Amino acid sequence: MLRMLSGLLARLVKLLLGRPGSSLHLKASRAATVLLVIVILAGSYVAVLAERGAPGAQLTTYPRALWWSVETATTVGYGDLYPVTLWGRLVAVVVMVAGITSFGLVTAALATWFVGREQERQGHFVRHTEKAAEEAYAQATRALHERFDRLERMLGDNRGGPSA
Q: In this predicted model, what pLDDT tens digit does every residue of 61-101 receive, in sequence order?
């Protein structure tokens, strides 16, 4: 069992580190999820150790403790299973904090991603609008220069005409 857990933990740590070049919100989400999985798996194991042999203990097998860890981390907390020892309750606190923190980080990362996409879209719109405004300004400037040139020619023709 411990060998299997250590192999799984090694894979989870590799996943936690992620690939170079990944965005920060993706790395944060990945890290939070991997850490939550580690806390759930390890917390279940420690809860079984802490609760074993205690009077009224319900977390006596790993599958039951795993179910309890998942419902505790997700803050569902049906109340069907709960720790009765001090050490079991301390494990519960760690699982709760890890669950709340992880879901908060994933939510924040998703919000950051959505906001970034919207800012990128708006930035594209602004750049497009600025380019169109610059083109309109250039056209208006050219038109004004052409009109001034025509006016200057007309004034020059009138000065050199019959009165001279």
A: 999 999 999 999 998 888 889 999 999 999 999 999 999 99
Residues of the chain with pLDDT under 70: 1-2, 5, 9, 12-22, 160-164
Question: In one letter, which amino acid is 38?
Answer: I
Quote the tokens at residue 81.
């299973």
The answer to whether 57 and 29 are in contact (CB under 8 A) is: no
Secondary structure in 3-state letters for the chain: CHHHHHHHHHHHHHHHHCCCCCCHHHHHHHHHHHHHHHHHHHHHHHHHHHHCCCCCCCCCCHHHHHHHHHHHHCCCCCCCCCCCCHHHHHHHHHHHHHHHHHHHHHHHHHHHHHHHHHHHHHHHHHHHHHHHHHHHHHHHHHHHHHHHHHHHHHHHHHHCCCCC
- Report how far apart, in Å, the C-alpha atoms of 102 and of each of 2, 5, 28, 34, 118 are: 25, 21, 9, 9, 24
Write down the pTM of the prediction.
0.61
